[in-house]
Amino acid sequence: MTKSKVDRPRGLKYLGFGFYFDSKAHQYKAKPHTKSVAKFKARMKQLTCRSWGVGNDYKVKKLNELIRGWINYFKIGSMKTLCAKLDSSIRYRIRMCIWKHWKTPHNRAKNLMKLGINKYTAWRTAYAGARIAYVCNKGAVNVAINNKRLPLCVSM
Fold first, then answer.
1. Spatial separation of the C-alpha atoms in residues 9 and 123, rounded to whole Å
2. For a pLDDT cut of 90, what percent of the chain falls above it?
3. What is the CA angle 65-67-73, rounded to 5?
4. Is residue 23 part of a domain?
5. Which domain holds residue 57?
6. Is residue 26 part of a domain?
7. How far is CA 119 from CA 35, 78, 100, 140, 148, in A?
8. Taking the model in full, what pTM does it have?
9. How confident is the model at residue 53, as a pLDDT?
């Protein structure tokens, strides 16, 4: 009784898919349901936890498995913009993991300079305090650890 219902396609969730009306094609199309997306995000956050004591290579391996399975299951649905958003959030979380693994401000500044950031900006960014999320969302870290340098094999 709780799972069965008669409703419009917009109100249905079937095998993890939700449905929306495409006005250009004049028909209903499938997309990942919001609960499925929330479950994926929760698992992604669990795998990119900054305090998880494993190497970044292992995190990327596990993330690749998750992404590959999720994409293969939902590939029949429309999810281009959703994948772009998820891709940027995954890359952001990996940047935070890398920043956390560098540990000390001295190492952070040294590694930023190795990646092409000038000395003043590197030291200013490295000594920004314990604001990991703030620092990894701003300029110097995004430029130094850009998408080409990230160790992500599978991208959305």
1. 54
2. 43
3. 100
4. no
5. 37-144
6. no
7. 45, 45, 20, 11, 22
8. 0.82
9. 86
